Amino acid sequence: MENETPKCPNCNGDTHVILINRTQKLGTAVGGVAGGAAGYASASSGAICGAAIGSRFAPVIGTGMGAITGALAGALAGFFAGATIGNQVGEHIDRHIIGVWHCNRCGAEFEG
Fold first, then answer.
1. In this structure, is residue 58 part of a structural domain?
2. What is the pTM of this model?
3. Which structural domain, as residue segments, surrounds residue 82?
4. Within its chain, how far is the Cα of 55 from the centroid?
C-alpha cells in the first residue's frame, strides 16, 4: 500500500503532516452513544440470562445483580462496537471526502 500522506506545500515533506480528524472524533462519539443505547435497549436477554445465573448463587440479591450486570454488559458491548464503527466511518470521511491536513513543522493547513 502506498503512502497516503501528502507532502506539505511549504516544507515539501510528509514527516510532520497529520490528518485533521474532526469527523473521526465526532463519529466515535455518535457511534458510541448510538451503540450504547441500542445495546442497553436490547439487553433484555442479557438481563434475563444474568438474572438466571445470579439467582443460582444468591436467590434475591443475585437476581438483581445478575440483571444489572447483564444489561450493563450489553450496553458496554454496544458502546464499543458503535464507537469502533463510528471511528472508522469518520476517518474515511476525513481522509477521502474532506481531506484537510496539517503540518506540525510549519503550521500550514492544506487539502491533500
1. yes
2. 0.74
3. 17-111
4. 34
Whole-number Å distance between alpha carbons of 89 and 97 = 11
Report the half-sphere exposure of 48 (CA within 13 A, side-chain side): 4
Average pLDDT, the chain: 87
12, 108 Cβ separation under 8 angstroms: no
Residue 77 in any domain: the answer is: yes
Residue 72 lies in a domain: yes
Secondary structure (3-state) at 106: coil
Q: Give the span between the Cα atoms of 98 and 43, in whole angstroms.
A: 37
pLDDT in tens, 38-91: 888 877 777 777 778 777 777 777 777 777 887 888 889 999 999 999 999 999
